[in-house]
Amino acid sequence: SCYTLNILHIHSMKHNWLLEELIKNGHKATTPRRVITEYLVKQEGLFCALTMARKMNKVDQVSIYRTLEIMKDLELINPVVNIDGQQFYEKNGDDDHHHHIICTNCKKTKCVDCKHDEIPKIPGFSNVRHSFILTGLCTVCKNKV
Hints:
It is built from 6 helices and 6 strands. The chain has helices at residues 7-12, 17-24, 31-42, 49-55, 61-73, 139-144; strands at 47-48, 77-83, 86-91, 98-103, 109-113, 133-136. Strands 1-3-2 form a 3-stranded antiparallel beta sheet. The protein has a 3-stranded mixed beta sheet with strand order 5-4-6, with no helix packed on it. The longest helix has 13 residues, at 61-73.
């Protein structure tokens, strides 16, 4: 295999809650899944398969898409927004509710605090959640223009 697990990865596995959840739900801990979940555990904010594939060039895109689909089905990650045909997700383990801003050019994302603590009660609906996506140009992309 072209993947190597060093001692650091072995020690950090106990903190890889995504891989633990996959295993607990009957999925194998393949090397690509280990690499993908290690990346996602450290990831802050939104992520998409295309960005992951660029950062993890030794993991094929099919494995990334399949793993994201499994994690979505297990509700470990949530789809947040689809931009230019690319689905962006966030980890479901984030306790504090927040929103996101996405650069329309490079797709860099950043978390934004939510100022709405109270969601109105809507007759006929339960478990109401809200999502708010901001778009704009990040400083790096703005300076290129």
